[in-house]
Specification:
Length: 225
């Protein structure tokens, strides 16, 4: 029996979106140059920030992005606009899908499955909706998924609303879906926090992808870069 493929885990309490985005790009670039480098999982929270996918329309913003007190970024992932903030657990897997399955639909369903398994640990049923990406609980979207894949190397990932202030979502049409509300784990489970959900997410990720997660300290040279 072959050993499980290792995935290097780097955790951050809170990380500026621009920094996380730059590090993802650096990690992807290095793995395009050397496909044998280890896979990586970044697990963190962001300060308040709005992001739009590459082809997203600004019509789903209810404010002027040029006059916003909250940062707004247009990035290379798929999907429309979303909101990140403290209390939301964000996972950015940098995986070489040549070692898994070269199938983007499979990969999106795998990311959803990670969230579904975490929710199951809390006694909740996570639902997928036909034609949409993400995970819902009782009709409320609790997790958004958006990815970019280059030469089968992934970046971006999923965001699970654990216990965030959901008011930030009121300034957008989240993921371009106007008729379905955004929700959080805290609305269904009492006394829950990102710190408690992190370990369940790591375990669910390892089981879903069949990998061995190894937590490491972030390299100082990259932290200073």
């Amino acid at each position: 029996m072959s050993p499980l493929r290792p995935v290097c885990l780097y955790q951050f309490d809170r990380l500026a979106y621009a920094q996380a985005w730059q590090w993802q790009q650096d990690l992807v670039r290095a793995r395009r140059e050397n496909p044998e480098l280890s896979d990586v999982l970044l697990l963190l929270e962001h300060p308040p920030v709005y992001t739009l996918g590459k082809g997203a329309t600004s019509d789903f913003l209810k404010f002027d992005p040029n006059a916003s007190e909250i940062e707004v970024y247009r990035v290379e992932r798929g999907g429309e606009v979303t909101y990140h903030c403290p209390g939301q657990l964000v996972a950015y897997p940098i995986l070489n899908l040549q070692h898994y399955r070269q199938d983007l639909h499979w990969y999106l369903r795998q990311l959803e499955e990670v969230v579904i398994r975490v929710l199951r640990d809390y006694g909740l049923r996570g639902d997928r909706l036909a034609g949409l990406t993400g995970v819902w609980v009782e009709g409320r979207k609790v997790a958004a998924v958006g990815i970019k894949v280059s030469r089968w190397i992934t970046m971006h990932g999923f965001a699970l609303n654990v216990s965030p202030d959901l008011k930030g979502f009121e300034a957008i049409v989240p993921c371009g879906i106007a008729d379905r509300p955004v929700g959080s784990l805290a609305q269904f489970v009492g006394d829950v926090s990102c710190d408690r959900v992190r370990q369940r997410t790591i375990a669910a990720f390892a089981d879903t992808f069949g990998v061995r997660v190894i937590e490491l300290e972030w390299p100082q040279k990259l932290a200073n870069g």
